[in-house]
Amino acid sequence: MREKFLLFAPPSIGEAEIDAVVDVLKSGWITTGPKSRELEQAFVDDLGVEAALAVNSATAALHLGLAVEGIGPGDAVFTTTMTFCSTVHVIEHLGATPVLVDVDPDTLNLSPDSLRKAIEKVRTNGEFTPRAVIPVHYGGHPCDMEQLFDICSGSGLFLLEDAAHAMPSLYGEKKVGSPLPSGINGMAAFSFYATKNITTAEGGMLTGSAEQIDRARVLSLHGMSKDAWRRYEKGGTWRYDVVIPGF
Q1: Given 35, 196, 226, 234, which residue is catalytic?
Q2: 134: which strand partners?
């Protein structure tokens, strides 16, 4: 019998992590700033992507990814039946229609064959326009990306990977979230929640092209053209514009 209460998600936190937090508390800068940028750059360097945006959750990253692509009412977004509810919530928050697709019994990941049938069914029905696919690397196990690339390339669908548990999973010799093949339009969302492989207690990351991340960064900051760090760092200016309704 246990003598101590079993914590929900005991993290691996040592003196280095504690010192890093103390450094931030002592710095006088406790909002989004240089440490967030360091984390973003670490993702860029590790995955080889053009850009990354640190946000408050993987849910926010997924939401921003769809918003950047202009997903909205009349659009169909295909995703798996085996996932956390927020994967579907973000589709509904933007007014799009989620289409749930069955999984492969061996991997519990999105079934490419079922996805092809679901896309064809939506196209034939004609009520909604197929726009995007959100595959979930369930438990960190990578989806069959080659087949998903083929489907999205042939259908012109935006590919938004829910990689919440998948840092640093591999498919073939590539890490999940690596740059996509030519002709594939997509992004990837990661989580740093308490139960994830890498944790910041809460938090998430969105990766993609420089253009996609630039737009996502503005959307993530209430539509403001500059964040506080850029306004108030040495040599910065307080002035900014609100260029779009953001979050």
Answers
A1: 196
A2: 79
pLDDT tens-digit map of 67-83: 999 999 999 999 999 99
For residue 71, which amino acid is it? Answer: I
- 196 catalytic? Reply is yes
Verdict on whether the full-model pTM lies above 0.90: yes
pLDDT in tens, 13-56: 899 999 999 999 999 888 888 899 999 999 999 999 999 999 99
